[in-house]
TrEMBL record:
<dbReference type="InterPro" id="IPR050237">
    <property type="entry name" value="ATP-dep_AMP-bd_enzyme"/>
</dbReference>
<feature type="domain" description="AMP-dependent synthetase/ligase">
    <location>
        <begin position="40"/>
        <end position="401"/>
    </location>
</feature>
<dbReference type="Pfam" id="PF00501">
    <property type="entry name" value="AMP-binding"/>
</dbReference>
<dbReference type="InterPro" id="IPR025110">
    <property type="entry name" value="AMP-bd_C"/>
</dbReference>
<protein>
    <submittedName>
        <fullName>(2,3-dihydroxybenzoyl)adenylate synthase</fullName>
    </submittedName>
</protein>
<dbReference type="InterPro" id="IPR045851">
    <property type="entry name" value="AMP-bd_C_sf"/>
</dbReference>
<dbReference type="InterPro" id="IPR000873">
    <property type="entry name" value="AMP-dep_synth/lig_dom"/>
</dbReference>
<dbReference type="Pfam" id="PF13193">
    <property type="entry name" value="AMP-binding_C"/>
</dbReference>
<feature type="domain" description="AMP-binding enzyme C-terminal">
    <location>
        <begin position="452"/>
        <end position="527"/>
    </location>
</feature>
<dbReference type="InterPro" id="IPR042099">
    <property type="entry name" value="ANL_N_sf"/>
</dbReference>
Length: 538
């Protein structure tokens, strides 16, 4: 174990201030447990219960626990040290869980990238984190990750190892790494456990270092809000490396509770419904476009979904019309989740009245989450008014990793994270997300909130998906373009204007252009990709 790398990883990390950390510990939010121990505890209390369900086999808690230990020892034996960073780009396969827990137990820091990331993102993240290893699948569909790894390795000199789940080609097979001998380090719970990639829509992705203490709380408190029990089966349908399916409560919350995890590589109704039926899945999480698709698909898919008790939807705003469809279609409880890799999570509660579940994005997870809603000058708005959400708390970062200049803008001097999200807070504490500060169309000096316009468009009977974008215009600066996926005829601009005016929308918010698309471009986790949309339709 080289002590230089064990401390080197802290360079560029912004820790919680001591007084805040003390308070989170003494109030019991931080339990002092390392993430690897969440699995250890469940494996001790219920070794024979299923941990990971797959088509091939059922892996018990004892099996997963032992496999994680073996791989942890093997990774250390390769010369990867505690504190070193490793790029993990594994898809939703059982090896994801083994590799994750192995890295956590070895004190090696996984940098959790998504399968959809490509050279630009991976090279940037590998260089920024000075990663020493890169974990990939052999291939996924048409894409060969070994070719990507060769390119990335040539560009990033710190990358000593490429480990492959599957056929290794010129690299090392992940399953050849496991070792039966060797000791595991003592992991400091206040240390960095893993790094998430920011979902930011501008610029290159940033790294979010999460500690064992803060992330364990994130996962276990989320599990409690969702009423998880050892009888629950969680389906990872969104990419497992994303915060939502990973820890809200996701994989980590399920393991902490002693439930079982199933994975699907394909979140389409056809594949995911089959997984739900086969593994008796009770809980899963989706982004809104998928939730909408699943709600519609019950009409043509005939899988038995009766095991499903809770569908979490988040990542982007779920329009009220779509929220109302979920429960009758899928016959399970809907939970809206408004979260961010940076930390703060909001959930509608299982006993919230329908109205709140359909129209809000939930309220903060923790009593220690501090929320401010501020105007452009940074002053608190009146209760119930719209403003930017600022937050700090026991599981919200105090700064991006190795990004001092950006941090100076993204945080207030007293440590609040500026989310860029526009919200209103109800007296109950529930938040209604009304858009992003930057997701507005500036039409001749008047601001149109894209979210608001999209919500109205979705109420049109022919509109299945809608996205509004600003396109450059010589006289207005920007004009409002709406891109629609429709069933049947595309409404004309005139028809849309009449429809929206009848719904009471102000004239300046009416679209100038309407475009048709077969589908909308999506980001790596499946949210509508506005940047790509502007490029396509601009
Ligand atoms: C989740 O995390 P990220 O980091 O991919 O994206 C965070 C951003 C938020 O700042 C917000 O702009 C948007 O995504 N967002 C929502 C939302 N949930 C996230 N906007 C409206 N309504 C929602 N329900 O997306 C994420 C992380 C953990 C749990 C759930 C989602």
């Amino acid at each position: 174990m080289t002590s230089t790398s064990a401390t080197g990883h802290r360079e560029g990390y912004v820790p919680f201030p001591n007084d805040a950390a003390e308070q989170y510990r003494s109030a019991g939010y931080w339990s002092g447990r390392a993430l690897g121990d969440l699995l250890r505890d469940s494996a001790r209390s219920q070794p024979q219960r299923p941990a990971v369900l797959s088509d091939a086999a059922v892996q018990s808690y004892a099996d997963l626990d032992a496999a994680a230990d073996r791989l942890a020892r093997g990774l250390l034996a390769l010369g990867i040290s505690p504190g070193d960073r490793v790029i993990v780009q594994l898809p939703n396969i059982p090896e994801f869980a083994t590799a994750l827990f192995a890295l956590l137990r070895a004190g090696i820091i996984p940098v959790l990238t998504l399968p959809a990331h490509r050279r630009a993102e991976i090279e940037h993240l590998a260089a920024l984190s000075e990663a020493v290893a890169y974990l990939i699948p052999d291939r996924l569909g048409d894409f060969d990750y070994r070719e990507l790894a060769a390119t990335v390795q040539a560009a990033v000199p710190s990358l000593r190892h490429v480990l492959v789940a599957g056929e290794p080609g010129a690299f090392t097979a992940l399953d050849s790494v496991a070792a039966d001998e060797g000791s595991l380090p003592e992991v400091d719970p206040s240390d960095i456990a893993l790094m998430l990639v920011s979902g930011g829509t501008t610029g290159l992705p940033k790294l979010i270092a999460r500690t064992h203490d803060d992330y364990a709380y994130n996962a276990t408190a989320s599990a409690e809000v969702c009423g998880l029990t050892p009888d629950d089966v969680y389906l990872a349908a969104l990419p497992a490396a994303h915060n939502f399916p990973l820890a809200c409560p996701g994989i980590l919350g399920t393991v902490a509770t002693g439930g079982a995890i199933a994975f699907t590589l394909d979140p389409s109704p056809e594949a995911a419904f089959a997984a739900i039926e086969k593994h008796a899945v009770s809980v899963t999480a989706l982004v809104p476009p998928l939730a909408q698709l699943w709600s519609a698909a019950v009409d043509w898919e005939d899988a038995d979904l009766s095991s499903l008790r809770l569908l979490q939807v988040g990542g982007a705003r779920l329009a009220e019309v779509n929220a109302r469809d979920v429960e009758p279609a899928l016959q399970c409880k809907l939970q809206q989740v408004f979260g961010m890799a940076e930390g703060l999570l909001n959930f509608t509660r299982l006993d919230d009245p329908d109205e709140l579940v359909h129209t809000t994005q939930g309220r903060p997870l923790s009593p220690a989450d501090e929320i401010r809603v501020v105007d452009a000058e940074g002053d608190d708005v009146a209760p119930g008014e719209e403003g930017e959400l600022l937050t700090r708390g026991p599981y919200t970062l105090r700064g991006y990793y190795r990004a001092p200049e950006h941090n100076a803008r993204a945080f207030t001097p007293d440590g609040y994270y500026r989310s860029g999200d526009l919200v209103r807070q109800l007296p109950s504490g529930h938040l209604m997300v009304s858009g992003r500060i930057k997701d507005v169309i500036n039409r001749g000096g008047e601001n149109i909130s894209c979210d608001e316009l999209e919500e109205h468009l979705l109420a049109h009977p022919a509109v299945r998906h809608a996205a509004a974008v600003g396109l450059p215009d010589a006289s207005l600066g920007e004009k409002a373009c709406v891109v629609l996926v429709v069933t049947g005829e595309l409404p004309t601009v005139g028809e849309l204007k009449t429809f929206l005016t009848e719904r009471g929308l102000a004239t300046y918010k009416l679209p100038d252009l309407v475009r048709q698309a077969d589908s909308l471009p999506l980001t790596a986790v499946g949210k509508i990709d506005k940047k790509a949309l502007r490029a396509l339709h601009g």
